[in-house]
Amino acid sequence: MRNKITHATRETIMTEKPWLFRTYAGHSTAAASNALYRGNLAKGQTGLSVAFDLPTQTGYDSDDPRSRGEVGKVGVPIAHLGDMRALFQDIPLDQMNTSMTINATAPWLLALYIAVAEEQGADIAALQGTVQNDIIKEYLSRGTYILPPEPSLRLVTDVAAYTAKHLPKWNPMNVCSYHLQEAGATPEQELAFALATACAVLDDLKVKVPAADFPAMAGRMSFFVNAGIRFVTELCKMRAFTALWDELLETRYGITDPRHRRFRYGVQVNSLGLTEQQPENNVYRILIEMLAVTLSKNARARAVQLPAWNEALGLPRPFDQQWSLRMQQILAYETDLLDYDDLFDGNPAIDRKVTQLMAQALEELAHIDAMGGAVAAIGYMKSRLVDANAERLARIESGATTVVGVNRFTTTEPSPLATGDSLIMAADPQAEADQCARLAAWRAKRDPAKVSEALASLRRAAQSGTNIMPASILCAKAGVTTGEWGNAMRALYGEYRAPTGVSPHPSNRTEGLEPVRDAVAAVATKLGRPVRLLLGKPGLDGHSNGAEQIAARARDCGMEITYDGIRLTPEEIVTAAVEKRPDVIGLSILSGSHITLIRETLQRMSEAGLAETPLVVGGIIPEDDARTLQAMGVARVYTPKDFQLNRIMLDLVALADPAPVAAE
User: Fold this and answer.
1) Burial class, 372, CB count within 10 angstroms (exposed 0-12 / middle 13-18 / buried 19+)
2) Nearest-CA neighbor of 300 among 268, 352, 342, 361?
3) How far is CA 371 from the centre of its chain?
4) Which strands form 97-101's sheet, in the order they lie side by side?
5) What digits encode the pLDDT tens for the residues 34-67?
6) DSSP state of 346
7) What is the pLDDT of residue 524?
8) Alpha-carbon distance 499 to 380, whole Å?
9) The pLDDT of residue 5
């Protein structure tokens, strides 16, 4: 009995505090999101992680025509100081560690956060948290950029320099390798592209802060990473990240204090691998992926947020988020993980893999450096991600990579978790109208003179190169809206359309495509020209992986493709269709705004004389919505379960075939 350790005793000998427990959340309205946050905190969440809707992320007001259908869908709409005030009602910001997933509009959202904290009477210097503020990965994967790379990088480092002086506990950016893996990056690419981004920021920041402050600023930079299902490789990747960051800061930037070279990262485990088929299996995937970033003490995450098991189906409910939170709490508080030193130090297999990953990442980083750094290499990195994702999907299609329940072990009992009503949370259909009404009321109550003066100050700061943060805070307090701030930036710097990464030239990946290529050639012969496919992404959704892979596969199958990238209006898509006269139009929407955007697109197609052109739609689309779209006239609806791209290609060829029309 001497060796018996009670639960109470174990708590007293725990040698390390657990990481921050986060849940990525926000939807509908600021008030609804506030209630969700307070509920999650009451359940034991220890840090907030705010999801903003796409208009907020891309600098549009909720009532802007481009925001139609997008308000409150993938996060909370924040159009002005009143919204931010409501978001954090009864949540003391000086006691909170807040992560805000925001990039292009990061200076603006941080300005609003600071203004609310001041209203609460908080000591601004005590604020803790981070804005994501990694704009380079937006050009590569997420697509919520606004401006060209150079002025965007300037805004990133303006935030960093401001926090150095005024918010010393704040992380001025998360270098986000998470989204790189979601876009198909290999572990080596994830390491190299993220470190290249960090170097671009440090190089720009170095001239904005006093030399004596630079090491501490480098030490405040944090990373936001991904952990996939190959958890031994992912664990080694994190150990490699830790070693590479330490080496880079010491050798390239001369930072001698090891405290400032510590690799500090938060993580959300992989959402790319969550399956619509047998979604209950996702619980195991999430748990295994969490182990990759928690088991190794010397490379352990400082904050963990886990997706919910049903995110491949739609918006998770509070219970689903609680289930993922409990997963973290059980590992931290019920197991003995935190009682021990690193479990993997000296393991020869781990050491070999870490050494291999480091060498390959450094080779890739040297190639990017030779091109002039991350900003100059955006096109190169984007094309590499598209190619890597194509190879990943091809392995799943062929069965070379097993995905349980998808391409193997597909025989299944009906899941009681995935049946019945209310499987996912539906966004409040009145939320957009409510948000727009409150925005109109906000504009009516503010002082127009103060707004004009604040916006003039913002323009002067941007034109002169003065740090953008003080003027942004002034705008926040004057009642300026998100769209007004965003439009001021657009007017000064212009907008930008990033490279798609889809080469117009066919690749050498032709294995298994012969039947599809033959079918495409047969229909092309009937048409007397190539089969034409026009792809578009209407709305503000920037997640372009699916559209890119459809474009690349269609190209390799012999179709003539038109794909101009993300954030197009239905009007722009239909105008392109009038010019190109495609045989099929394909639209990809992952933000939940498919009903609104497809309805407008179909109406414009009818007005333009394109009513007979088949329209197909892909995205995270619930079954009821899929039936609604088909009733509206959509020819095919594809969701994440439709992973066999060759089958989709054959569908498109059949829709383009003029023979059925001739037979009628």
Assistant:
1) exposed
2) 342
3) 26
4) 170-171, 128-131, 97-101, 47-51, 20-25, 303-305, 265-268, 222-225, 174-176
5) 888 888 888 888 778 888 999 999 999 999 999 9
6) T
7) 97
8) 9
9) 33
DSSP 425: P
Backbone angles phi, psi at 509, to 5 degrees: -85, 85
Give the integer Cα–Cα distance in Å for 332 and 18: 6
pTM of the model: 0.90
Concatenated DSSP letters of 39-50: HHHHTT--EEEE
370: Cβ contacts below 8 Å, ≥ 6 apart: none
Residue 432 in 3-state DSSP?
A: helix
Please check whether residue 85 is in contact with residue 116, taking contact to mean a CB–CB distance below 8 angstroms: yes
Residue 333 Cα distances to 18, 293, 328, 329, angstroms = 8, 16, 9, 6
> In whole angstroms, how far apart are CA 88 and each of 92, 111, 153, 382?
8, 14, 29, 37
Sign of torsion over alpha carbons 217, 45, 268, 259: positive
User: What distance in Å separates the CA atoms of residue 102 and residue 155, rounded to the nearest whole number?
Assistant: 13
- Compare 17 and 635 and report the one with higher pLDDT: 635
Catalytic residue numbers? 24, 178-179, 537, 541, 543
Asked if pLDDT for residue 407 goes beyond 70, the answer is yes
Tell me the one-letter amino acid at 396. Answer: I
Q: What is the pLDDT of residues 344-354, one digit of tens each?
A: 999 999 999 99
Mean pLDDT of the chain: 91
In contact, 553 and 391? CB cutoff 8 Å? no
Which pLDDT does position 664 carry in this prediction?
41
Query: Closest by alpha carbon to 344, among 292, 266, 285, 270?
Result: 292
Cα–Cα distance, 643 to 650 (Å, whole number): 13
- Give the tens place of pLDDT for each residue, 370-392: 999 999 999 999 999 999 999 99
Any bridge partners for residue 223, and if so which?
175, 265
Query: What burial letters (b/e) apply to 222-239, b meaning 16+ CB within 10 Å?
Result: bbbbbbbbbbeebbbbbb
Buried b (16+ CB within 10 A) or exposed e, 416-433: eebeeeebbbebeeebbe
